[in-house]
Recover the amino acids of this structure.
């Protein structure tokens, strides 16, 4: 089983669109893909959440959501406020493993790497699954600090970082964004493996799926595989 965990340096940096792009790129290479979103917040029962958006953009048909809470808060806080039981690491790991017959299983976290999903964090999921983590980051001011904090936390925990992806690359990048594109790998020691064009999440499936493989360098499947701590390949 090959698992890739997707986290962000904060909320609203583009994790869902990056997850969809990775799924679309892997599918373009003939891989079967499954996507797990352990906890969805800020969405009412019956409303489309992040997995629906991933399905719409990438065409992936196998998805799994374990818990949903209506308030747009950290999952553990949202669960407590609505009286729902917290997810456990054990049930979450078992759920991801249940998707193991797919060539690639993507796990999209909530917020950053230390956000509590239940009684555990995204970092705990990656460690329990021995899975690398792809870090989605912003293009503009503040991203250097946030990204270095995230990658240092992964390194301290002994979790492999599969690379950095800029979740929304502006059509007309300013000086800070242009400098950050150079400085992010220089300061973190982690390669920048992709950048998603701003607004791509509003595209239709055909356009998105056709373009997605070109947003990653030298290609998401090969790059993530090269960064794995084992000799498994995506």
């Amino acid at each position: 089983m090959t698992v890739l965990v997707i986290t962000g340096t904060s909320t609203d940096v583009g994790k869902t669109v990056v997850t969809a792009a990775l799924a679309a790129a892997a599918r373009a290479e003939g891989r079967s893909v499954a996507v797990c979103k352990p906890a969805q917040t800020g969405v009412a029962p019956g409303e489309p959440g992040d997995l629906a958006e991933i399905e719409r953009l990438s065409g992936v048909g196998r998805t799994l959501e374990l818990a949903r809470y209506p308030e747009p808060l950290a999952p553990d806080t949202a669960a407590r406020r609505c009286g729902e039981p917290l997810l456990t690491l054990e049930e979450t790991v078992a759920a991801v493993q249940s998707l193991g017959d797919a060539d690639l299983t993507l796990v999209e976290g909530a917020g950053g790497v230390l956000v509590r999903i239940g009684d555990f964090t995204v970092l705990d999921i990656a460690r329990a699954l021995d899975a690398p983590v792809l870090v989605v980051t912003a293009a503009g001011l503040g991203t250097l600090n946030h990204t270095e904090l995230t990658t240092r936390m992964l390194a301290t925990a002994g979790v492999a970082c599969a690379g950095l992806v800029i979740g929304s690359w502006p059509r007309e990048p300013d000086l800070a964004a242009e400098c950050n594109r150079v400085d992010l790998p220089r300061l973190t020691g982690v390669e920048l493996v992709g950048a998603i064009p701003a607004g791509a999440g509003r595209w239709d499936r055909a356009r998105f799926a056709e373009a997605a493989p070109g947003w990653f360098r030298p290609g998401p499947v090969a790059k993530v595989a090269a960064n794995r701590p084992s000799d498994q390949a995506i």
